[in-house]
Amino acid sequence: MTRLSTIIATADDPRWARVVARDRTADGSFWYSVATTSVYCRPSCPSRTCNPKNVTLHATLAQARATGCRACRRCDPDAAGTDRTHPAVLRACRMIEGAEDIPALRALAAHVGLSAWHLHRLFKAATGVTPHAYATAHRHGRVRHELGRATTITDAYVAAGFGSGGRFYSDADAALGMSAGRYRDGGSREDIQFALGVSTLGHVLVASASRGVAAILLGDDPKALLTDLATRFPKARLTGDDPAYRTVVQTVIALIEEPAAGLALPLDIRGTAFQHRVWQALRAIPVGTTLTYTDLARQIGAPAAVRAVASACAANPLAVAVPCHRIVRADGGLAGYAWGVDRKRALLQCERAASIEPCSPRRSTGSRR
Ligand SMILES: [Zn+2]
């Protein structure tokens, strides 16, 4: 059926007339996917009728899902009822969709209680593709969808359900033809630009990869900051002499002087999925407000992970831009700060004052760690 639908133009397929008519009696007998919006629908979907050139008709729900498209929110095609796909195939599809890595055929077969050969045959008959091709299409669909709406690459891969940037970028390569391969393997062959500057909080080192600011480090000793940068990006080519990059540093220093103004630069945040959850929650804390580690753990839905949350805060590579300084102890104490407790105090004082009038933090003499 998949092959047939690519040979017959959708506009000439009798099923298309039922879509145009929003025929409810057609629901459950076929589905359609729309290439331009990456969604699949049931025939009676109330959305505006789209150009049939962008539409593929599918005999089964599993075939529609095998495109990697998402279920339409308006017509809820997954709930459309009488899909006759073999339940073992449906269970295999759900397992693939829920897994971060593409499951091995043997694991899928064991999960649904069939032999690998039998599942492969049933799967291909129901979906028109192999389990591996289904999994690949599904992952690519997620990547495209999330990249279309996320503001940063990091947001996209966390939302797409990838536990690590490496896996996401390797999928993005295939899904988008992006040259993201150099992001794999801890940034090997990656170009990182950096520059040093001075703020009222002392020396600042700002470093960017091609996608955005990847590190903002604060300290008293520029040499120590450079060593820190080299440790964080051990395989990257570090370039520190581009005069054009100084404007980026100036923008970051402006943020440090006045955190309430926000940072209008893209960020390229590297970390584990858990760290990303913590850092995103940090970015949602308003200027002038503080939370405790316990609050933050609760906010990311991991109330028991207070210690892990504290470690993620300590591992934050983007001082001020990811405001880990807004986390305090339950008794109101400042707790630690990777870039020195004095800097943390100065930042918090400034932010508290900023809700009354704009300010600049006092010069701090705090030392790192
Ligand atoms: Zn729809």
Automatic annotation (TrEMBL):
Cofactor(s) needed for function: Zn(2+)
Domain HTH araC/xylS-type: 105-186
Name of the protein: methylated-DNA--[protein]-cysteine S-methyltransferase
GO molecular function, one term: sequence-specific DNA binding
SMART domains: HTH_ARAC (SM00342)
PANTHER family assigned to the protein according to its UniProt record, in alphabetical order: BIFUNCTIONAL TRANSCRIPTIONAL ACTIVATOR_DNA REPAIR ENZYME ADA, METHYLATED-DNA--PROTEIN-CYSTEINE METHYLTRANSFERASE
Enzyme Commission number(s) from the entry: 2.1.1.63
GO biological process: DNA repair; methylation
Lineage: Bacteria, Pseudomonadati, Pseudomonadota, Alphaproteobacteria, Acetobacterales
Cofactor note: Binds 1 zinc ion per subunit.
SUPFAM superfamilies on file: Ada DNA repair protein, N-terminal domain (N-Ada 10), Homeodomain-like, Methylated DNA-protein cysteine methyltransferase domain, Methylated DNA-protein cysteine methyltransferase, C-terminal domain
Keyword terms, alphabetized: Activator, DNA damage, DNA repair, DNA-binding, Metal-binding, Methyltransferase, Transcription, Transcription regulation, Transferase, Zinc
Gene3D superfamilies linked: DNA Methylphosphotriester Repair Domain (3.40.10.10), Homeodomain-like (1.10.10.60), Methylated DNA-protein cysteine methyltransferase domain (3.30.160.70), Winged helix-like DNA-binding domain superfamily/Winged helix DNA-binding domain (1.10.10.10)
